[in-house]
Amino acid sequence: MATKEIMPDPICLIENLSNGQLAVNPKALAILSGISQRVVVVTIVGPYRTGKSYLMNQLAGQKKGFSLGSTVQAHTKGIWMWCVPHPTKKDHTLVLLDTEGLGDVEKGNPKNDSWNFALAVLLSSTLVYNSMGTINQQAMDQLHYVSELTKHIRTRAGPSLDGVDDSAEFVSFFPDFVWTVRDFTLELNLDGHPITEDEYLENALQLKRETDEEAKLFNLPRRGIRQFFPTHKCFVFVPPTNWKKLKKLEELQESDLETEFLEQEERFCSYIFQYAKTKTTQGDIVINGTRLESLVVTYVETISSGGLPCMENVVLVLAEIENSAAVKKALACYEKLMSQLRFPTNTLQELLDFHAVSESKALEVFMESCFKDEGQKFQKELGNQLLERMNDFCKKNEKMSTDHSWVLIQKIFQPLEEAVMKGTFSKPGGYTLFLQMKQKLKKKYNQEPDKGLQAEETLLKYLRSKEDMEEAILQTDKLLSEKDKEMAVEKAKSKTAEQEAKLLQKVREKNQQMLEQKEKSYQEHVRQLTRKMEEEWQHMLAEQEKAISLKLKVNIDHPQSSNWPFFLFPVEGGLSWFVVRDLGAILQCFTYALVISASQILFSFPQEQTKLVQEGLHNESKQIQVQIHCLQSNCRSSSSKSSCIII
């Protein structure tokens, strides 16, 4: 798709209606549906009138595009979209989403802020939060939308296992988090030492020990950012120019802007272009424009109907659409490959071998696009469709062979029929002459190439149709005695029976070949399905490990705010840290912890934190164990799935 030509300007993607409802713009959806490339979705959120639109215009490589405005009135309403070619990633489209400012006093429905923020998170692969001044408590308070995400997004459709909050799985599909701080005038210095922008953000996200309700509220947005978003990045920007010129920022030349601001802007854009990832959703499903369209529609319809966007349901809806399209794509691939076969083939095996290669390629196309094919519903459908098409090609092959053979027969045996009409064989010894000419023409017919697998059967049918004519010539031949005629008749019958037996054997061979091909098709389906399941298994493990590792990292980095203690296990010569870093270690850790005596476990916390730790230990350990139990169940379920019969 030539996005530069189709989208010279941004377009409203999701509109906030006056009645408080959300509506999707069909024109924007049509644009997304035409993008077959993978998409990198960068969404910017933040308080209104903080310069969000300006940054997005820079990412688009344009001075103008998203409306900037120059008053205290917010300009961007709803969520606006601009699709442009990705400047550094080949075969990718950069989708820029500019959102309505949070906290707009003119907003009709304050709940729209929460939904806009939730949609920004769900749709993007990189989320940019834009604020002014510094990252202080006020800025954190404005980010209460992060802590509210658990109220607006669900991971699973069914109830949580044992009451465990499924928000722990957010990290597996949430975007990377970038905080941009505008009009930053402070020195990046902490305790007398220079720090980086990322260290500045890291310090702002430090958690407190939760000894009272105030500390819990303090930690709420910070823990949300740490636990929900896989990576965190910070950029600070000095004021671009004096406040009078800011009114016409989009009209200013680079020479009118502060050099430091331009350098910061360049670093920000370069980072986004290089590190903003391709959009994926739960299950590591890669999103293109068409899939993004489905996500937008599904999310907005769910919200408008009063429901909560559920990743599991969204993936299933997306799977229905995509898997159906994958079947069509695979069938188109099969048809294209089979069209290269020259008909008619001389043998059935030639066609079946070509079919096998084409089917394998079609299956590869299907497997590349399909996901969440529960019960192999769509693979079965594809298998049935391929079987039907193979049978159709077999019929086509036979018909073309029959038609071609019949044309040859009419041409080659025409002299014989003309001789009969002229009475050439109506004389003594005529029957012998007839047989000689017939044999000569049969030989000529058999020498004709590329007649196909129906050549013999078609010839036999033709000769059967002329049996009465041959019988008449035999009976009128005065040179032959009655005994000779009887012997000739018996010989003809014997020859016919021999040919029919030969044809019957070919029918049996054909049926056997078809059965063998069906078995080969089944085995190919199983082989490719097994490989697909192994890939999905690896993705599932990676997602679970990613989610649990991040949770562990938060607890390790901030033990004073965590309900989960570190374990110190007795080893020879003293105590040793049992540091859990991956899924396998987690499973081993809990297996070990459950079988050893509780008296053997010592906690690494200071004495004054022991009570806090003990209070949260049970719940936190329970949550982690249930997550692991869920993962183990999924693993066993995947491992025990027997390959179903596809065809």
From TrEMBL:
GO terms for biological process: cellular response to interleukin-1; cellular response to tumor necrosis factor; cellular response to type II interferon; defense response to virus; protein localization to nucleus; protein maturation; symbiont entry into host cell. Residues 36-277 form the GB1/RHD3-type G domain. Residues 480-535 form a coiled coil. It comes from Ornithorhynchus anatinus (Duckbill platypus). Keywords: Coiled coil, GTP-binding, Hydrolase, Immunity, Innate immunity, Nucleotide-binding. The keyword Coiled coil applies. This is Guanylate binding protein 2. GO terms for cellular component: cytoplasmic vesicle; cytosol; Golgi membrane; nucleoplasm; perinuclear region of cytoplasm.
